[in-house]
Design brief:
The chain has 360 residues and is α/β, with parallel strands linked by helices. Helices cover 36% and strands 21% of the residues. The strands form three sheets. A ten-stranded mixed β-sheet has the order 3-4-5-6-9-10-11-12-13-14. A two-stranded antiparallel sheet has the order 1-2. Helix 10 links the parallel strand 12 and strand 13. The longest helix is centred in the middle third of the chain and has 16 residues. Its EC number is 2.1.1.192.
Length: 360
Amino acid sequence: METTTNQTTKVEAKPSIYSLQLEELKNWLKDHEEKAFRAEQIYDWLYKKRVSLFEDMSNLPKSLRDKLEHNFAITTLKTIIQQTSKDGTIKFLFELHDGYSIETVLMRHDYGNSVCVTTQVGCRIGCTFCASTLGGLKRHLDSGEIVAQVVKCQQALDETDERVSSVVIMGIGEPFDNYDNMLGFLKTINHEQGLNIGARHITVSTSGIVPKIYQFADENTQINFAISLHAPNTELRSRLMPINRAYSLPELMKSVRYYINKTGRRVSFEYGLFGGVNDQAEHAEELAKLLKGIKCHVNLIPVNYVPERDYVRTPRDQIFEFEKILKNHGVNVTIRREHGHDIDAACGQLRAKERQEETR
């Protein structure tokens, strides 16, 4: 067992059983002199029946339930705050076993329910517009802590007979900075005996860790891939996103072309519009030139105001003008529909407000 600490607590934590993929669970059972077929039964209890206690797994022998109880935790998330928007968006602030906190968002669309998950406690990337990076990186989440976020949202939807239909990995943290745990999470939620969420209904986003983009391309999955771009040239991107100093825009675009050639799949570019910074007509023209010939889609994002940051929202008419310029150049572009505008919608904003000791 691993001992994890923060500023005030020291907790010896049992690992989350959600961290075990099906084959890993079978191997664990064999190592503990149990039948491998019990793994499917345990998965059924975890992901179909969604129980919270090992003792509720009634078709397992008591001796096995005791072993599971001794070695694992089912969930490591405690709901601290649950905010509900007028549009139905629900934002959760969860507390982890060691006292740190993370955010998860459940968004309701016409086409189904989407969950935005967090992969790290804080973030080391340092984007100048983002509340998630306030206070830096505290630690990575293990794959089970990421899976548990989707399970928690599904349990909330169980009350109204609905299901999680899609997942986006765009919450607090940089997913490719926690690559192995992110990949384990993807395999579990995609598995037909897990949460059975189709690969084409899952999207992972990165700020641009170039070596991991090549690695992800070589995984050759059907999972959707997005890049947080936010600037049409390397100088402006370096001002907004310090990661661009490590992996410049030309390097990033080279890795994107590799991904498209390797997988045959298009890439989405997330482009937040910041008033007077990156939202002028010349920026739109420059962006269209940057993306020429690339199989992609641009998602324009009207930014949420974050008190700790100085950026302001681009005026509505200017957003439509930016979109029009891109369309005139043949770029596939949409404006992201806003969710949770009346609650702490920006990524990391609720945590920054409620857990100031973590985000100083």
